[in-house]
Design brief:
With 253 residues, this protein is an all-alpha fold. It has one domain (2-252). The protein is built from twelve helices and no strands. 39% of the residues are buried. The mean pLDDT is 84.
Length: 253
């Protein structure tokens, strides 16, 4: 059964990946907004923000990476909705394939597409002066957190992809996720924010994730932020997965 599921998922993932490679403009569209924000904040606002000994491009890159992922997962919802409208799911149901493999194919495609987008954004950051003396272990930890965050947001994206009534509705859910890092420690220290805003910023998922990635890349002690970040990612992933699978069962029943 496991071999059957893995084989079916691999074939279906290959199908969705081919759609992405044939339409690379989706990846370019995903990275344009984060790169534009990075240019704007570094070269326009960066000089007015005190980040101590850390250069501003180093300081804000973790937040830009989260925005890149939040922007990219909207295409997961878009592709799912398009498959539903095109009748692909009905055709798959008539074939002897693992039903859950259809969802996992879209999720794995999201991981691959977002990984490419993140590499492009980091490459542009390097051209803008980003530097890190972090070792292999730290970079692997950063990659692990970004993969976990991508998985969590992708399963959130599956829900509107399965339940939306229009194409615009399927992808519009990502806007609050893109905006969330702005009310966090991603671009300015939370200590500079008014009381209620600071309280929200200090206790929302993006802040602990950003702080953890930033500390890893700047070779500073991570502290308890890493456990908070992992707890947020796992909690979001579990809840989103449960609701996504429920929506999928209702849709194909």
């Amino acid at each position: 059964m496991a071999t059957h599921f893995l084989g079916d998922t691999a074939v279906l993932t290959g199908r969705t990946l081919r759609h992405v490679t044939r339409s690379l403009d989706t990846i370019l569209t995903t990275v344009i907004t984060p790169i534009a924000m990075m240019l704007l904040f570094v070269y326009v606002f960066g000089g007015a923000i005190d980040t101590g000994p850390v250069s501003y491009v180093n300081y804000m890159l973790p937040g830009i990476l989260l925005i890149t992922i939040a922007s990219g997962i909207s295409y997961t919802a878009f592709r799912l909705f398009a498959d539903l409208q095109g009748g692909i799911f009905e055709r798959f149901q008539s074939m002897p394939i693992a039903r859950s493999g259809v969802l996992w194919a879209h999720v794995l495609t999201s991981l691959a597409a977002n990984a490419i987008s993140l590499v492009v954004v980091v490459g542009v950051a390097l051209l803008m002066g980003f530097r890190s003396g972090a070792g292999v272990a730290s970079w692997l930890a950063v990659a692990g957190i970004l993969v976990l965050f991508t998985l969590a947001l992708t399963w959130i994206a599956v829900i509107p992809g399965l339940t939306a009534k229009t194409m615009d509705g399927a992808s519009a859910f990502s806007y609050p996720l893109i905006f969330l890092p702005f009310i966090s420690s991603a671009f300015v220290p939370t200590g500079t924010m008014p009381g209620p805003v600071r309280a929200f910023a200090d206790h929302q998922p993006a802040t602990s994730i950003v702080n953890t990635i930033r500390d890893l890349l700047t070779e500073r002690p991570v502290g308890s932020d890493i456990w908070t970040a992992l707890a947020w990612c796992v909690a979001i992933l579990v809840v989103a997965y449960v609701f996504a699978t429920m929506a999928y069962r209702r849709r194909i029943s």
